[in-house]
Amino acid sequence: MPLIETRDLSYVYSEGTPYEKRALDGVNISIEEGGITAVIGHTGSGKSTLMQQLNGLIKPTGGSIYFDGRDIWENPKEIRQLRFKVGLVFQYPEYQLFDETVRRDIAFGPKNMGLDEKEIARRVDFAAQMVSLDEKLLDKSPFELSGGEKRRAAIAGVIAMMPRVIILDEPTAGLDPRGRDEILSRLAEYKRMTDTTMVIVSHSMEDVAYMADSVLVMNKGGLLMHGSVSEVFSRAEELKSVGLSVPDVTKIFMGLKSAGVKISADIFTVDSGIEEIKRYMQSR
Amino acid sequence: MDNIIEIKDVSFRYSSEEESGDYVIKNLSLTIEKGSFTAVLGHNGSGKSTLAKLINGLIKPESGSVEVLGMSTSDEDKETEIRRNVGLVFQNPDNQLVATIVEEDVAFGPENLGMPPEEIRRRVDDALKRVDMYDYRSHAPHKLSGGQKQRVAIAGIIAMEPQCIVLDEPTAMLDPKGRDEVMDAIISLNKNSGITIVLITHFMDEAVRAGRVVVMDNGGIIMDDTPRKVFSNVSELKSIGLDVPQATELAFRMNGMGYEMPRDILTKEEFIKAFMEKYA
Fold first, then answer.
1. Nearest Cα to B73, choosing from B145, B154, B143, B10?
2. Does some domain include residue A274?
3. Is residue B119 part of a domain?
4. Is residue B121 part of a domain?
5. DSSP 8-state code for residue A73
6. Is residue B50 part of a domain?
7. The CATH number of the domain where A226 resides is what?
8. Which domain holds residue A82?
9. Is residue A278 assigned to a domain?
10. In chain A, where does DSSP find H-type helix?
C-alpha cells in the first residue's frame, strides 16, 4: 500500500468568482514509503498546490487524499495531527523564521505536538545536528544567520517533528553551489539514517538526478509522467515540450549515443557519466 | 572602446558594521566597457550584490571611486542621471512589479521622469517588444509566469533607455523555460540594442554565454577573463564553492583518468565533438 495516494484530486482557486482558476484537475498519484520522489513541472503547473494538499494545508475542491490508507479529510478535526506526520518545508522557508532564537524556532513544531521539555531539547539537538547547524548558532537570533544557515534552520524545524514524510518545496532555490550541495548532502544523510519518505519539488534537473528515486512530472494541473529517474529523463523531447529539460550531462551522453558511440545514454549525474566512460574505454 | 563603468580601489562596509565590521568589498578595481556582456560569479557573501548596488549608486564607496559615464556615484547631483543610465534588476520579480496592468508597470519609470504621453507610449511599446512581451501588454502581472514577470521588470528598466543594466541573479527563482526566456532577452538587449550587461549569477551555463567572466571571493576579484579561460580552472573554482559546466567537469575528470581531452571545453557540443574525434 502506498503511503500517500490521491484519487481524482482537483483544486479550483476562488471557485464561482471571475478569478476562478483550476490549479489541479483529476490528479492520481501514489507515493511509496521510504523513497525520495521528485516533483517537477514549470511554474503554474500545479506542483505547489499539490504539495499543500498533501499535508492538509488546503482542502481539495474535488477528489480525495489518503495517508496510510485513510482519507485525510474524513475527520477534519484531525487534520492538525496529519501536519505533524507530513512536514512541509515551504519555498524560501528562511523568511518564516520568527522566534527570538534559532533554538526556539526549531522547537516550535515539537512544542505544538505537546512533547515534554526533555524530548523537545533532544529533538532540537538532533535536528540541528542533522542539518549541520553549529551548536553555537542555536542561541543566536535567526536574523544573524547567513542565507544558507537560515534555510537549514527552517528545515531543522520540520525535521524536529520527526514526520513520516518531509515535503520540500524547492529547497535549493537561490542558493549558491556550495549552499546547494550542503543542503542536498544533509538531506541525503538524513534519509539514509531515518528512512523518512521525502518529496522534493525542484526546478533543477541536476538536483533531481542526484537525489530522487522516482519523478512525478506535472503539467497544466495534471500528472504527465510518473516513473523512475531513468524512465522520465529518457523522454527528453516531451520534457522539453512542457518547458522542462534533462541534465546537461544526460544531453551529452544522448548526443554521443546518437552519433553512433556504443555508450549508454542512461546517465544523469557526472559521477555516473565518469563510470560509463571508464566502462566504454575498457571495452574498446 | 569606451568604459561605461570605472571602479577604482573601492572598499565598502555596511554602516551598521562600520569601524568594527568586516569589509564586504576590499580594494576592488574593475572597468566595464560600453556594449560588453560581463558575468559576475561568486558564492553568497562574496560581495557580488554589494558590487551591483555600488555600480548604480544605491550605496557609496567608503574609499575609492565608482564612476558611471564619467560621473561619480558619490556626487549627489548626478544620482538621478546615474540611476537612469544604469538599471538594476533583482532576483524576485514579484517585488519589482507595482501596477495592475503590464504596460502601466513598464510606464512607471518614464512617467516619473515627467515625459510627454506620446514618448511614454513609444518607449513602453518598444521596451515590451524587445523582451517579447508586447502581446501581454494589457495582462495583469500577477497572472504571468515567473519568466514573463521578470521580462516585464526588465522592460520597465529598458523604458528608461539606460545604457547599462545590472542584473542580480534574475533567474534564481525561475523554472528552466523561464530561465531561457530571460537569458534570451538579456542577450538580445546586448547584441541588438547595444546595452551593456552586467549579470550576477550562480548558474554556470549563463556565465558561459557572456563575453567576460569576473569571479569574486572575499570582496575582491580573483579571476577575470573569457569564460573559456576562467572555467578551465576547475579545481580553483570548486575550492571556492563554485561549479563548472557539466561538460567542462567531465572533460576535466577524463584528463585526471589519463584520457586526454581539451582542457577548455565549455559546452556539450564541444565535448561531443572532441570525444568523437579521439575516442569514437
1. B10
2. no
3. yes
4. yes
5. T
6. yes
7. 3.40.50.300
8. 4-246
9. no
10. 47-54, 79-85, 102-112, 117-130, 147-159, 177-194, 205-211, 229-233, 236-241, 248-258, 270-283
For chain B (length 280 residues), average pLDDT per consecutive 10?
A: 92 72 91 97 89 92 95 93 92 84 93 91 94 93 88 93 94 87 93 96 93 96 96 94 94 96 94 96
**Residues in chain B closer than 8 A to A271 (CB atoms):** none
User: Whose CA is closest to A96, among A39, A155, A54?
Assistant: A155
Chain B residue with CA closest to A258: the answer is: B272
- What are the beta bridge partners of residue B217? B220
B278 falls within a domain = no
Q: Minimal Cα distance from B146: which residue of A?
A: A43
If one counts the domains in chain A, the total is 1
CA distance B172 to B202: 8
Q: For position B18, which CATH number holds?
A: 3.40.50.300
Q: What are phi and psi of B275, to 5 degrees?
A: -65, -45
Note whether A173 contacts B172, CB cutoff 8 Å.
yes
Is there a domain that residue A283 lies in? Answer: no
Q: What ipTM is given for this predicted complex?
A: 0.86
Residue A118, in any domain of the structure? yes
Task: Name the amino acid, one letter, at B39.
Answer: A
If one counts the domains in chain B, the total is: 1
- Quick check: B242 and A247 CB within 8 A? no
- Chain B contacts to A (CB-CB under 8 A): 42-45, 91, 145-147, 169, 172-178, 202, 205, 241-243, 245-247, 249-250, 253-254, 257, 259, 268-269, 271-272, 275-276, 279-280
Cα B64 versus chain centre, distance: 23
In 3D space, the residue among B157, A190, B209, B279 whose CA is nearest the CA of residue B199 turns out to be B209
Q: Which domain holds residue B111?
A: 3-244
B208: its cell numbers: 558561459
